[in-house]
Design goal:
This protein is mostly beta strands.
Length: about 500
Protein backbone atom coordinates (compact mmCIF):
# COMPACT_ATOMS: atom_id res chain seq x y z
CA UNK A 1 0.00 0.00 0.00
CA UNK A 2 1.41 3.36 -0.96
CA UNK A 3 1.83 6.03 1.68
CA UNK A 4 -1.42 7.81 2.41
CA UNK A 5 -1.65 11.09 0.54
CA UNK A 6 -4.04 13.27 2.54
CA UNK A 7 -4.55 16.96 2.06
CA UNK A 8 -7.08 19.66 2.73
CA UNK A 9 -8.68 21.15 -0.36
CA UNK A 10 -9.13 24.83 -0.99
CA UNK A 11 -12.18 26.50 0.50
CA UNK A 12 -13.99 26.50 -2.84
CA UNK A 13 -13.40 22.79 -3.49
CA UNK A 14 -14.36 21.90 0.09
CA UNK A 15 -17.67 23.74 -0.18
CA UNK A 16 -18.49 22.31 -3.59
CA UNK A 17 -17.60 18.74 -2.62
CA UNK A 18 -19.57 18.77 0.61
CA UNK A 19 -22.53 20.43 -1.08
CA UNK A 20 -22.66 17.79 -3.83
CA UNK A 21 -22.25 14.98 -1.29
CA UNK A 22 -25.20 16.26 0.72
CA UNK A 23 -27.76 17.11 -1.92
CA UNK A 24 -27.30 14.87 -4.94
CA UNK A 25 -29.91 12.42 -3.68
CA UNK A 26 -32.48 15.23 -3.56
CA UNK A 27 -32.03 15.92 -7.24
CA UNK A 28 -33.51 12.57 -8.27
CA UNK A 29 -35.98 11.98 -5.46
CA UNK A 30 -38.95 12.01 -7.78
CA UNK A 31 -37.53 9.86 -10.55
CA UNK A 32 -39.65 6.82 -9.64
CA UNK A 33 -38.80 3.33 -10.83
CA UNK A 34 -35.66 2.54 -12.76
CA UNK A 35 -35.91 3.79 -16.33
CA UNK A 36 -33.98 3.14 -19.50
CA UNK A 37 -31.99 6.33 -18.86
CA UNK A 38 -30.97 4.96 -15.46
CA UNK A 39 -29.79 1.70 -16.99
CA UNK A 40 -27.80 3.55 -19.65
CA UNK A 41 -26.25 5.80 -17.01
CA UNK A 42 -24.91 2.83 -15.04
CA UNK A 43 -21.82 2.73 -17.26
CA UNK A 44 -21.42 6.52 -17.16
CA UNK A 45 -21.76 7.31 -13.49
CA UNK A 46 -20.89 4.07 -11.72
CA UNK A 47 -24.32 3.21 -10.31
CA UNK A 48 -23.84 0.01 -8.33
CA UNK A 49 -26.19 -2.95 -8.33
CA UNK A 50 -27.09 -2.66 -4.66
CA UNK A 51 -29.68 -5.30 -3.65
CA UNK A 52 -33.13 -3.78 -3.25
CA UNK A 53 -36.80 -4.62 -2.82
CA UNK A 54 -38.78 -4.07 -6.01
CA UNK A 55 -41.90 -3.08 -4.08
CA UNK A 56 -44.11 -4.53 -6.82
CA UNK A 57 -46.18 -7.51 -5.68
CA UNK A 58 -47.23 -8.23 -9.26
CA UNK A 59 -43.72 -9.06 -10.49
CA UNK A 60 -41.49 -12.02 -9.76
CA UNK A 61 -38.04 -11.64 -8.27
CA UNK A 62 -34.85 -13.62 -7.73
CA UNK A 63 -32.26 -13.43 -4.96
CA UNK A 64 -28.73 -14.83 -5.13
CA UNK A 65 -27.14 -15.44 -1.72
CA UNK A 66 -23.34 -15.32 -1.34
CA UNK A 67 -22.83 -18.73 0.27
CA UNK A 68 -22.21 -20.54 3.56
CA UNK A 69 -19.95 -23.30 4.91
CA UNK A 70 -21.50 -26.73 4.40
CA UNK A 71 -19.31 -29.12 6.40
CA UNK A 72 -18.43 -27.34 9.65
CA UNK A 73 -20.26 -29.03 12.52
CA UNK A 74 -20.17 -25.97 14.77
CA UNK A 75 -21.67 -23.67 12.10
CA UNK A 76 -25.29 -23.35 11.01
CA UNK A 77 -26.89 -20.98 8.54
CA UNK A 78 -30.25 -19.62 7.40
CA UNK A 79 -31.97 -17.91 4.51
CA UNK A 80 -34.64 -15.48 5.71
CA UNK A 81 -37.53 -14.53 3.39
CA UNK A 82 -39.78 -11.71 4.57
CA UNK A 83 -43.33 -11.37 3.22
CA UNK A 84 -44.76 -7.92 3.99
CA UNK A 85 -47.85 -8.43 1.81
CA UNK A 86 -51.33 -9.76 2.57
CA UNK A 87 -51.02 -12.71 0.19
CA UNK A 88 -48.85 -15.86 0.34
CA UNK A 89 -45.56 -15.80 -1.55
CA UNK A 90 -44.47 -18.98 -3.29
CA UNK A 91 -41.30 -19.96 -5.07
CA UNK A 92 -38.36 -22.30 -5.02
CA UNK A 93 -34.84 -22.45 -3.60
CA UNK A 94 -32.00 -23.89 -5.66
CA UNK A 95 -28.96 -24.95 -3.63
CA UNK A 96 -25.63 -24.74 -5.51
CA UNK A 97 -22.98 -27.09 -4.12
CA UNK A 98 -19.22 -27.33 -4.53
CA UNK A 99 -19.06 -30.94 -5.69
CA UNK A 100 -22.59 -32.19 -6.31
CA UNK A 101 -25.50 -31.36 -8.63
CA UNK A 102 -27.84 -28.56 -7.59
CA UNK A 103 -30.84 -29.41 -5.43
CA UNK A 104 -34.26 -27.72 -5.47
CA UNK A 105 -36.82 -27.19 -2.71
CA UNK A 106 -40.24 -25.52 -2.86
CA UNK A 107 -41.05 -22.52 -0.71
CA UNK A 108 -44.16 -20.78 0.63
CA UNK A 109 -44.23 -17.82 3.01
CA UNK A 110 -47.56 -16.84 4.55
CA UNK A 111 -48.79 -13.20 4.60
CA UNK A 112 -47.08 -10.82 7.03
CA UNK A 113 -44.56 -13.42 8.18
CA UNK A 114 -41.05 -14.47 7.45
CA UNK A 115 -39.80 -17.86 6.36
CA UNK A 116 -36.55 -19.27 7.72
CA UNK A 117 -34.82 -21.92 5.59
CA UNK A 118 -31.71 -23.98 6.27
CA UNK A 119 -29.17 -22.33 3.94
CA UNK A 120 -27.58 -25.71 3.20
CA UNK A 121 -30.88 -27.36 2.28
CA UNK A 122 -29.76 -30.29 4.44
CA UNK A 123 -26.96 -31.04 1.96
CA UNK A 124 -23.29 -31.72 2.66
CA UNK A 125 -20.70 -29.84 0.63
CA UNK A 126 -17.70 -27.65 1.46
CA UNK A 127 -19.63 -24.52 0.53
CA UNK A 128 -23.25 -24.01 -0.52
CA UNK A 129 -25.06 -21.00 -1.97
CA UNK A 130 -28.77 -20.50 -2.61
CA UNK A 131 -30.86 -18.96 -5.38
CA UNK A 132 -34.33 -17.93 -4.17
CA UNK A 133 -36.92 -17.40 -6.93
CA UNK A 134 -40.23 -15.88 -5.82
CA UNK A 135 -43.52 -14.97 -7.46
CA UNK A 136 -43.71 -11.62 -5.67
CA UNK A 137 -41.38 -8.64 -6.00
CA UNK A 138 -42.31 -7.21 -2.59
CA UNK A 139 -40.36 -9.88 -0.69
CA UNK A 140 -36.95 -9.38 0.93
CA UNK A 141 -34.22 -12.01 1.38
CA UNK A 142 -31.11 -12.20 3.59
CA UNK A 143 -28.52 -14.78 4.59
CA UNK A 144 -27.39 -15.45 8.19
CA UNK A 145 -24.50 -17.58 9.48
CA UNK A 146 -24.37 -18.68 13.12
CA UNK A 147 -20.66 -19.12 13.87
CA UNK A 148 -18.80 -19.65 17.19
CA UNK A 149 -16.55 -16.68 16.34
CA UNK A 150 -19.57 -14.42 15.79
CA UNK A 151 -22.87 -14.53 13.94
CA UNK A 152 -22.99 -12.60 10.68
CA UNK A 153 -25.76 -11.35 8.36
CA UNK A 154 -25.25 -10.61 4.68
CA UNK A 155 -27.37 -9.36 1.81
CA UNK A 156 -28.31 -11.45 -1.22
CA UNK A 157 -27.98 -10.04 -4.74
CA UNK A 158 -30.90 -9.36 -7.09
CA UNK A 159 -28.92 -10.43 -10.12
CA UNK A 160 -25.53 -11.84 -11.13
CA UNK A 161 -22.85 -9.57 -12.56
CA UNK A 162 -19.84 -9.94 -14.84
CA UNK A 163 -17.57 -8.33 -12.21
CA UNK A 164 -17.27 -8.21 -8.43
CA UNK A 165 -14.93 -6.42 -6.03
CA UNK A 166 -13.75 -6.63 -2.43
CA UNK A 167 -11.79 -3.76 -0.88
CA UNK A 168 -10.90 -5.47 2.41
CA UNK A 169 -9.66 -9.07 2.43
CA UNK A 170 -7.41 -9.20 5.49
CA UNK A 171 -5.32 -12.39 6.04
CA UNK A 172 -3.03 -11.10 8.81
CA UNK A 173 -2.09 -13.62 11.54
CA UNK A 174 -3.19 -16.40 9.19
CA UNK A 175 -6.75 -15.08 9.21
CA UNK A 176 -8.98 -16.94 6.77
CA UNK A 177 -10.37 -15.17 3.71
CA UNK A 178 -12.44 -17.30 1.35
CA UNK A 179 -13.96 -15.94 -1.86
CA UNK A 180 -17.09 -17.80 -3.02
CA UNK A 181 -18.12 -17.64 -6.69
CA UNK A 182 -21.57 -18.98 -7.64
CA UNK A 183 -22.73 -19.74 -11.16
CA UNK A 184 -26.54 -20.17 -11.21
CA UNK A 185 -26.71 -20.68 -14.99
CA UNK A 186 -26.76 -23.87 -17.11
CA UNK A 187 -23.58 -22.79 -18.93
CA UNK A 188 -20.07 -22.48 -17.52
CA UNK A 189 -18.68 -19.08 -16.49
CA UNK A 190 -15.01 -18.18 -16.95
CA UNK A 191 -13.36 -15.58 -14.70
CA UNK A 192 -10.01 -13.87 -14.17
CA UNK A 193 -9.01 -12.94 -10.64
CA UNK A 194 -6.44 -10.38 -9.55
CA UNK A 195 -5.60 -9.04 -6.13
CA UNK A 196 -3.78 -6.12 -4.56
CA UNK A 197 -1.54 -6.23 -1.48
CA UNK A 198 0.66 -3.61 0.13
CA UNK A 199 3.29 -4.47 -2.49
CA UNK A 200 1.01 -3.86 -5.46
CA UNK A 201 -1.20 -5.68 -7.94
CA UNK A 202 -0.77 -9.38 -8.62
CA UNK A 203 -2.24 -11.39 -11.49
CA UNK A 204 -1.14 -15.03 -11.00
CA UNK A 205 -1.44 -17.24 -14.05
CA UNK A 206 -3.26 -19.79 -11.86
CA UNK A 207 -6.10 -17.29 -11.37
CA UNK A 208 -6.65 -16.69 -15.09
CA UNK A 209 -9.40 -18.55 -16.91
CA UNK A 210 -10.96 -20.16 -13.85
CA UNK A 211 -14.01 -22.16 -14.88
CA UNK A 212 -17.09 -22.10 -12.66
CA UNK A 213 -19.13 -25.11 -13.64
CA UNK A 214 -22.87 -24.70 -14.38
CA UNK A 215 -25.01 -24.49 -11.25
CA UNK A 216 -22.03 -24.82 -8.92
CA UNK A 217 -20.19 -22.77 -6.30
CA UNK A 218 -16.42 -22.33 -6.54
CA UNK A 219 -14.30 -21.42 -3.49
CA UNK A 220 -10.92 -19.80 -3.30
CA UNK A 221 -8.77 -19.42 -0.17
CA UNK A 222 -6.72 -16.29 -0.79
CA UNK A 223 -4.08 -17.40 1.71
CA UNK A 224 -3.38 -20.37 -0.54
CA UNK A 225 -3.03 -18.10 -3.58
CA UNK A 226 0.05 -16.24 -2.39
CA UNK A 227 -1.83 -13.70 -0.27
CA UNK A 228 -1.01 -15.02 3.19
CA UNK A 229 -0.52 -12.74 6.21
CA UNK A 230 -1.60 -9.65 4.29
CA UNK A 231 -3.12 -6.71 6.17
CA UNK A 232 -3.98 -5.11 2.82
CA UNK A 233 -5.77 -7.34 0.32
CA UNK A 234 -8.31 -6.22 -2.29
CA UNK A 235 -9.73 -8.55 -4.94
CA UNK A 236 -11.17 -8.03 -8.45
CA UNK A 237 -13.05 -10.84 -10.22
CA UNK A 238 -14.04 -10.27 -13.85
CA UNK A 239 -15.82 -12.69 -16.15
CA UNK A 240 -14.48 -13.28 -19.63
CA UNK A 241 -17.60 -15.35 -20.31
CA UNK A 242 -20.91 -15.36 -18.43
CA UNK A 243 -22.01 -13.83 -15.12
CA UNK A 244 -21.79 -14.94 -11.51
CA UNK A 245 -22.25 -13.94 -7.84
CA UNK A 246 -19.38 -13.34 -5.40
CA UNK A 247 -19.31 -13.42 -1.62
CA UNK A 248 -16.64 -13.59 1.05
CA UNK A 249 -16.17 -15.37 4.38
CA UNK A 250 -13.64 -13.87 6.78
CA UNK A 251 -12.41 -15.40 10.05
CA UNK A 252 -10.16 -12.88 11.81
CA UNK A 253 -7.51 -14.43 14.05
CA UNK A 254 -5.23 -11.61 15.16
CA UNK A 255 -3.26 -8.44 14.40
CA UNK A 256 -5.99 -6.28 15.87
CA UNK A 257 -8.91 -8.24 14.38
CA UNK A 258 -10.96 -11.07 15.85
CA UNK A 259 -14.30 -12.57 14.82
CA UNK A 260 -16.23 -13.78 11.82
CA UNK A 261 -17.68 -11.63 9.05
CA UNK A 262 -19.46 -12.42 5.78
CA UNK A 263 -20.54 -10.22 2.90
CA UNK A 264 -21.86 -10.10 -0.61
CA UNK A 265 -19.32 -8.43 -2.90
CA UNK A 266 -19.71 -5.12 -4.71
CA UNK A 267 -21.12 -5.77 -8.19
CA UNK A 268 -19.49 -2.59 -9.50
CA UNK A 269 -17.51 0.40 -8.43
CA UNK A 270 -19.38 3.58 -7.47
CA UNK A 271 -18.80 7.31 -7.56
CA UNK A 272 -20.11 7.63 -3.98
CA UNK A 273 -20.36 5.39 -0.92
CA UNK A 274 -22.53 6.22 2.11
CA UNK A 275 -21.97 4.81 5.62
CA UNK A 276 -24.46 5.33 8.44
CA UNK A 277 -22.51 3.52 11.17
CA UNK A 278 -19.47 5.71 11.79
CA UNK A 279 -18.32 5.73 15.40
CA UNK A 280 -15.43 7.23 17.35
CA UNK A 281 -14.65 6.42 20.97
CA UNK A 282 -11.83 4.99 23.06
CA UNK A 283 -13.01 1.40 22.54
CA UNK A 284 -13.48 1.56 18.75
CA UNK A 285 -10.97 1.29 15.93
CA UNK A 286 -12.53 2.34 12.61
CA UNK A 287 -10.96 2.27 9.15
CA UNK A 288 -12.19 3.14 5.67
CA UNK A 289 -10.58 0.90 3.05
CA UNK A 290 -10.67 2.47 -0.43
CA UNK A 291 -9.81 0.29 -3.45
CA UNK A 292 -9.09 1.80 -6.86
CA UNK A 293 -9.28 -1.09 -9.38
CA UNK A 294 -8.72 1.20 -12.37
CA UNK A 295 -5.56 2.16 -14.24
CA UNK A 296 -5.74 5.83 -13.34
CA UNK A 297 -5.08 7.59 -10.04
CA UNK A 298 -8.28 8.80 -8.41
CA UNK A 299 -9.08 11.42 -5.80
CA UNK A 300 -11.89 11.06 -3.29
CA UNK A 301 -13.32 13.36 -0.66
CA UNK A 302 -14.35 12.04 2.74
CA UNK A 303 -17.07 14.01 4.55
CA UNK A 304 -18.20 13.24 8.10
CA UNK A 305 -21.90 13.95 8.64
CA UNK A 306 -22.82 14.89 12.21
CA UNK A 307 -25.74 17.23 11.62
CA UNK A 308 -23.50 20.26 12.20
CA UNK A 309 -23.06 21.98 8.84
CA UNK A 310 -20.10 24.06 10.01
CA UNK A 311 -18.10 20.91 10.77
CA UNK A 312 -18.93 19.36 7.41
CA UNK A 313 -17.85 22.39 5.43
CA UNK A 314 -14.74 23.03 7.48
CA UNK A 315 -12.59 19.97 6.95
CA UNK A 316 -13.64 17.28 4.52
CA UNK A 317 -10.55 15.28 3.57
CA UNK A 318 -9.19 14.56 0.13
CA UNK A 319 -7.32 11.31 -0.51
CA UNK A 320 -5.38 10.24 -3.56
CA UNK A 321 -5.84 6.56 -4.41
CA UNK A 322 -3.10 5.41 -6.83
CA UNK A 323 -4.14 3.28 -9.79
CA UNK A 324 -4.65 -0.34 -8.86
CA UNK A 325 -3.93 0.24 -5.18
CA UNK A 326 -5.61 0.41 -1.77
CA UNK A 327 -5.57 3.32 0.69
CA UNK A 328 -6.65 2.88 4.30
CA UNK A 329 -7.88 5.84 6.33
CA UNK A 330 -7.82 5.32 10.10
CA UNK A 331 -10.72 7.60 11.00
CA UNK A 332 -10.35 6.88 14.71
CA UNK A 333 -7.04 8.75 14.67
CA UNK A 334 -8.30 11.92 12.98
CA UNK A 335 -8.38 14.76 15.54
CA UNK A 336 -10.94 16.69 13.47
CA UNK A 337 -13.52 13.89 13.92
CA UNK A 338 -15.40 14.31 17.19
CA UNK A 339 -16.39 11.41 19.45
CA UNK A 340 -19.77 9.79 18.95
CA UNK A 341 -21.88 8.66 16.02
CA UNK A 342 -21.57 10.09 12.51
CA UNK A 343 -22.25 9.27 8.90
CA UNK A 344 -19.58 9.15 6.21
CA UNK A 345 -19.77 9.82 2.50
CA UNK A 346 -16.82 8.99 0.25
CA UNK A 347 -17.07 10.72 -3.15
CA UNK A 348 -14.87 10.37 -6.21
CA UNK A 349 -13.83 13.82 -7.41
CA UNK A 350 -11.52 12.77 -10.24
CA UNK A 351 -12.19 15.09 -13.18
CA UNK A 352 -11.63 12.58 -15.96
CA UNK A 353 -13.79 9.50 -16.27
CA UNK A 354 -11.88 6.26 -15.82
CA UNK A 355 -12.31 3.43 -18.31
CA UNK A 356 -11.22 -0.17 -17.83
CA UNK A 357 -9.32 -1.98 -20.56
CA UNK A 358 -11.98 -4.68 -20.82
CA UNK A 359 -14.80 -2.44 -22.02
CA UNK A 360 -16.06 1.12 -22.12
CA UNK A 361 -17.65 1.06 -18.66
CA UNK A 362 -16.63 3.93 -16.41
CA UNK A 363 -15.22 2.76 -13.09
CA UNK A 364 -14.58 4.56 -9.82
CA UNK A 365 -13.74 3.10 -6.39
CA UNK A 366 -14.94 0.47 -3.92
CA UNK A 367 -15.09 1.29 -0.20
CA UNK A 368 -15.51 -0.90 2.88
CA UNK A 369 -15.69 0.12 6.51
CA UNK A 370 -13.86 -1.98 9.13
CA UNK A 371 -14.79 -1.54 12.78
CA UNK A 372 -13.15 -3.37 15.69
CA UNK A 373 -14.59 -2.91 19.17
CA UNK A 374 -12.59 -3.74 22.29
CA UNK A 375 -13.76 -4.59 25.79
CA UNK A 376 -11.88 -6.31 28.64
CA UNK A 377 -9.04 -7.27 26.28
CA UNK A 378 -11.52 -8.85 23.87
CA UNK A 379 -12.07 -7.69 20.28
CA UNK A 380 -14.91 -8.04 17.79
CA UNK A 381 -14.41 -7.02 14.13
CA UNK A 382 -16.95 -6.46 11.39
CA UNK A 383 -16.66 -5.24 7.80
CA UNK A 384 -19.39 -3.38 5.92
CA UNK A 385 -19.82 -2.11 2.38
CA UNK A 386 -21.29 1.35 2.08
CA UNK A 387 -24.48 2.22 0.20
CA UNK A 388 -23.50 3.11 -3.39
CA UNK A 389 -24.92 5.70 -5.75
CA UNK A 390 -28.65 5.15 -6.20
CA UNK A 391 -29.13 3.35 -2.88
CA UNK A 392 -30.42 6.16 -0.57
CA UNK A 393 -34.19 5.66 -0.41
CA UNK A 394 -37.32 6.75 1.45
CA UNK A 395 -38.25 3.16 2.34
CA UNK A 396 -36.05 0.39 3.77
CA UNK A 397 -36.75 -3.18 4.90
CA UNK A 398 -34.91 -5.24 7.50
CA UNK A 399 -35.95 -8.75 6.49
CA UNK A 400 -34.65 -10.70 9.50
CA UNK A 401 -35.39 -7.96 12.01
CA UNK A 402 -33.29 -7.28 15.08
CA UNK A 403 -32.86 -10.26 17.43
CA UNK A 404 -33.95 -10.14 21.04
CA UNK A 405 -30.30 -10.59 22.03
CA UNK A 406 -29.81 -6.95 21.10
CA UNK A 407 -29.20 -4.64 18.20
CA UNK A 408 -29.84 -1.20 16.78
CA UNK A 409 -30.80 0.59 13.59
CA UNK A 410 -28.50 3.42 12.55
CA UNK A 411 -30.17 5.85 10.15
CA UNK A 412 -28.36 8.53 8.18
CA UNK A 413 -30.29 11.42 6.65
CA UNK A 414 -28.55 11.59 3.28
CA UNK A 415 -29.99 14.98 2.29
CA UNK A 416 -29.58 18.65 3.17
CA UNK A 417 -33.13 18.81 4.58
CA UNK A 418 -34.52 17.61 7.91
CA UNK A 419 -36.74 14.54 7.64
CA UNK A 420 -39.36 12.62 9.61
CA UNK A 421 -39.14 8.85 10.14
CA UNK A 422 -41.57 6.08 11.03
CA UNK A 423 -40.36 2.65 12.15
CA UNK A 424 -42.83 -0.25 11.93
CA UNK A 425 -42.83 -4.00 12.32
CA UNK A 426 -44.48 -6.49 9.98
CA UNK A 427 -46.66 -8.99 11.83
CA UNK A 428 -50.09 -10.65 11.79
CA UNK A 429 -51.77 -7.24 11.66
CA UNK A 430 -49.60 -6.05 8.79
CA UNK A 431 -47.40 -2.98 9.11
CA UNK A 432 -47.75 -1.46 12.60
CA UNK A 433 -45.70 1.47 13.85
CA UNK A 434 -43.64 0.71 16.96
CA UNK A 435 -44.93 2.69 19.93
CA UNK A 436 -42.85 5.82 20.32
CA UNK A 437 -41.42 5.50 16.81
CA UNK A 438 -44.43 6.79 14.86
CA UNK A 439 -42.82 10.15 14.14
CA UNK A 440 -39.10 10.71 14.66
CA UNK A 441 -37.32 13.89 13.64
CA UNK A 442 -33.89 13.61 12.03
CA UNK A 443 -31.90 16.67 11.05
CA UNK A 444 -30.09 17.27 7.77
CA UNK A 445 -26.93 15.19 7.25
CA UNK A 446 -27.41 13.69 10.69
CA UNK A 447 -27.36 10.20 12.19
CA UNK A 448 -29.82 8.59 14.59
CA UNK A 449 -29.37 5.35 16.53
CA UNK A 450 -32.60 3.50 17.37
CA UNK A 451 -32.84 0.67 19.90
CA UNK A 452 -35.60 -1.74 18.90
CA UNK A 453 -37.75 -2.82 21.89
CA UNK A 454 -37.55 -6.50 22.85
CA UNK A 455 -41.29 -6.83 22.23
CA UNK A 456 -40.64 -6.02 18.55
CA UNK A 457 -37.55 -8.18 18.19
CA UNK A 458 -37.28 -10.85 15.51
CA UNK A 459 -40.00 -9.25 13.36
CA UNK A 460 -39.32 -7.77 9.91
CA UNK A 461 -38.92 -4.01 10.17
CA UNK A 462 -40.01 -1.24 7.80
CA UNK A 463 -38.41 2.23 7.90
CA UNK A 464 -40.20 5.07 6.08
CA UNK A 465 -38.87 8.63 5.71
CA UNK A 466 -39.88 11.88 4.01
CA UNK A 467 -36.47 12.17 2.35
CA UNK A 468 -33.77 9.74 1.24
CA UNK A 469 -31.97 8.00 4.09
CA UNK A 470 -29.44 5.19 4.50
CA UNK A 471 -30.27 2.45 7.03
CA UNK A 472 -27.66 0.19 8.57
CA UNK A 473 -28.35 -2.52 11.12
CA UNK A 474 -26.04 -3.55 13.93
CA UNK A 475 -26.82 -6.78 15.80
CA UNK A 476 -24.93 -8.51 18.58
CA UNK A 477 -22.60 -11.25 17.43
CA UNK A 478 -24.04 -13.77 19.92
CA UNK A 479 -22.16 -16.35 21.99
CA UNK A 480 -21.48 -13.67 24.62
CA UNK A 481 -18.99 -12.05 22.25
CA UNK A 482 -18.44 -8.31 22.06
CA UNK A 483 -18.96 -6.18 18.98
CA UNK A 484 -21.66 -6.35 16.34
CA UNK A 485 -22.42 -7.73 12.90
CA UNK A 486 -23.17 -4.77 10.67
CA UNK A 487 -25.08 -4.81 7.39
CA UNK A 488 -27.18 -2.43 5.32
CA UNK A 489 -30.95 -2.80 5.24
CA UNK A 490 -32.67 -3.25 1.85
CA UNK A 491 -33.83 -0.10 0.04
CA UNK A 492 -37.08 -0.07 -1.96
CA UNK A 493 -36.61 0.76 -5.63
CA UNK A 494 -40.14 2.12 -5.93
CA UNK A 495 -39.26 5.09 -3.69
CA UNK A 496 -36.85 6.48 -6.23
CA UNK A 497 -33.43 5.77 -7.66
CA UNK A 498 -30.95 8.48 -8.49
CA UNK A 499 -30.76 8.51 -12.26
CA UNK A 500 -27.64 10.64 -12.48
CA UNK A 501 -24.89 11.37 -9.98
CA UNK A 502 -22.72 14.41 -9.98
CA UNK A 503 -25.07 16.63 -11.97
Amino acid sequence: MKKLNLRYASTLVILATAFVALIFVNQASDQGLETESVRKSENVFGISAMPSVAGDSQSSTSWFCPGVPGLEKTVSSEIVVSNSTDIPITGKVTFLLSDKPAAVAQLIVQPFTRGVIDATGGRKSKFISAVVELDNGAAAVEQRIIHPAGDSISLCANKPSDRWFFADGFTGADSLFNVLLSNPFPDATVVDISFVTADGKREPASLKGIIIEPERIYSLSMGDQGARNESVLAVSIRATSGRFVAGKLQHFLGRGRLGYSTSLGAASTSRQWWFAGGRKDLDTDEQLVVFNPTEQDQSVSVAFLTGVAEEIFREPLVLTIPAGRVTTLATSKLPAVTDGRYGVVVSSITNDFVTSDEDSAVEFVVVEQVISRREDKKTGTTTTFGAPVGAPSRIWTVASGVPAAGGTLVILNATSLATTLKVSTIGPAGSVAIEGFEKIELGAAAVLEIKIPIASADLPILIEADNEVVVQREVNRGHELIGVSSVLALPHRSSGIAAVAGK
